[in-house]
Specification:
The structure is a homodimer.
Chain A (H helix, E strand, L loop, with lengths): L1 E5 L3 H10 L5 E6 L11 E4 L5 H10 L2 E4 L6 H8 L8 H7 L2 H10 L7 E4 L2 H10 L4 E5 L9 E4 L4 H8 L5 E5 L5 E9 L5 E3 L3 E6 L2 E7 L6 H14 L4 E10 L2 E8 L9 H4 L4 H9 L12 E8 L5 H5 L4 E5 L9 E9 L2 H16 L2
Parallel strand pairs in A: 1-2, 1-4, 2-3
Antiparallel strand pairs in A: 5-8, 6-7, 6-8, 9-10, 9-11, 9-13, 11-12, 12-15, 13-14, 15-17, 16-17
């Protein structure tokens, strides 16, 4: 059985690492010469809108999935006529557009921050009478890791912020002074079976995820799981989905969802019985979903821009290192460390030690 | 950093799967066209005694290891002049010959069954006056999975058994009516750091390992660890070693050692903080050894000859499936299932269910 993947980055790489033990093989389509999944998967080098390359992928693969949502929906539409593609197209097109996404949340009675779609400066000015400062302006499409976003604090910010977007359709939202950013990762297979991992608390710096901690038996679990199940069932979803939420007091507000395995779920590689990568593969192959039971304490620290001393990292008893085989570059995700244990004091001590190692490069 | 491996079977495959997250890459030398490690490692196709191919491996790899002990010692000797090779040659040549192996055990005060080297039928007949029936005749070299062995129950067996060996040098040993067969797996790095996994109880059928169970806090741990440390230090060993022992009452008798990762340690993939494959790589790269702490209950069931229904296996909550991507063939190891949990009742229930699934094909 050969799994096709659109994209050959670290998520494709970790899908393949999780899938080989199930007896699966992998082929990915990626434009770059040194796609980091290339050491564990065959590669078709080409652009995502290259029909001949898509045709080849469809011929070679028994089922196709994707590792990120900024691929042309037309590519998935084309492939889906020739080979099963999961998650479904509707999930992809919805996740690609913040307006569709927010409207779907509302339709499913999933709370969101207030939002207004914006097509020009006048609409932005009008919206800021309805939505109070501070607010956040986001492009409807193509945003990731905080890119394509601007915080609006006063009327004077509007013109600059709008011009910065180069006139692309946008959305303006209430800026939420959240207590926590959390995400929930869940899997659904063809048969409609659903499994949710424990919610994860996420810490971003400058829009990039730095740290995630699994919250076993957290008070937000029930609400978050309920929200994500509504999404999964409505979309007749197959695969892993990630729903990102802001928590304010007891309230959860949906921010966005990703129709894929997610950085905030990397801790499951060492902290859950079956990780998000294997469960994504099980879901798209309609195999029984694996247990999402987790260790008592589990967290993940991202390695960004540089990789610190491997020796120092590996000296920490519960550190599991996951490098992506990528060259160092500012702002680039190069790997992560998982820390999983049943002892809280050890957990906190090792996280502290690892954060020191990571911060001192 | 590129790791070279002599052999491209499942052990090489699992070394590579464990090593990619450390940012390592792999190249293996294997004669077969469909070496199952080929999906996660580059391959040089060639025989182990092909000097040009060994030369190429030495050029490409920063350090070389091997996945099984039936490779020509001359190949390792040749490579070792050009590139670091671990485990050391002396460990390989000793493990390749049951007589050298047993003599080393004795030298290190590691108890063994009584044994006599045999070069002809007369020596065999003479030996059976010293060693009582039942005894076991084994070729000194090239034996694995019970091959090259014959049980001797009476004088009449001697001629047939000896003729069966085609005159190769052999060893005759006391047949041990053991209570348990156990193994201990340990790692040693360049710096002399040693870590031992919990001993494992092993069940063989017709010479092939079928089932291994980790024995956490077992009464045999101290003695087994002491034995394996003597071996590691004497050999100035680097890498993972496996020492197989017979237990009779409280006594441990060394049977053989393997200078490599071992089937009886596959449970560590899901039942230990750092598994045998990663610890082998850490050892040969002189990185800090990873924790060998294990879950309370851990076991492994081998999949031999056929792979049963993947659906049924994956329905068991704590089953982690590891397939090798090999065609089905009688007597061939095709994969294994690990079962790891902290609850004894669940553990026993799932092992029973999985053994039923495996036995019913």
């Amino acid at each position: 059985m050969i799994i096709g993947i659109l994209g050959g980055g670290q998520l494709a790489r970790m899908l393949a690492l999780a899938g080989h033990p199930l007896g699966l093989q992998f082929i990915m389509l990626d434009p770059s010469e040194d796609a980091c999944a290339g050491v564990v998967a065959d590669q078709i080098q080409g652009r995502y809108n290259d029909i001949a390359k898509l045709e080849l992928l469809a011929q070679k693969a028994d089922v196709v999935t994707y590792e990120f949502e900024n691929i042309p929906a037309a590519a998935v539409e084309f492939l889906a006529k020739k080979v099963p593609v999961y998650p479904p197209l509707l999930a992809l097109t919805t996740a690609q557009d913040r307006l569709y996404e927010k409207k779907l949340f509302r339709k499913l009675d999933i709370c969101t921050p207030a939002f207004v779609p914006i097509n020009n400066l006048e609409e932005l000015q009008r919206a800021l009478k309805e939505i109070s400062y501070p607010a956040i302006l986001k492009t409807r499409t193509q945003g990731y890791d905080g890119k394509g976003q601007a915080i609006l604090r006063r009327n004077a910010d509007l013109t600059t912020a709008w011009e910065h977007l180069n006139g692309v359709p946008a959305i303006v939202e209430d800026f939420i002074p959240f207590d926590r950013e959390i995400s929930i990762i869940a899997a659904r297979n063809h048969s409609g079976e659903i499994k949710c991992y424990p919610v994860t608390e996420n810490v971003h710096h400058a829009g990039i995820l730095h740290f995630s901690k699994a919250l076993k038996n957290d008070s937000a679990q029930h609400q978050a799981a309920d929200y994500v199940k509504r999404l999964l069932n409505h979309l007749d979803y197959v695969g892993i989905i990630t729903l990102e939420l802001f928590q304010v007091g007891d309230q959860l507000l949906a921010n966005e969802f990703a129709p894929r395995v997610h950085n905030s779920g990397h801790w499951t590689q060492n902290g859950a019985i079956i990780d998000q990568f294997e469960n994504h593969l099980r879901a798209i192959l309609d195999l029984p979903l694996g247990s999402t039971d987790s260790s008592d304490y589990a967290a993940m620290i991202n390695l960004i821009s540089t990789v610190p001393s491997r020796e120092k990292i590996l000296q920490q008893t519960h550190a599991n290192l996951h490098l992506y085989g990528k060259e160092e570059r500012t702002g680039r995700k190069l790997g992560h460390i998982n820390i999983c244990t049943s002892d809280e004091a050890t957990f906190n001590k090792e996280i502290g030690a690892l954060q020191n190692i990571v911060n001192s490069g």
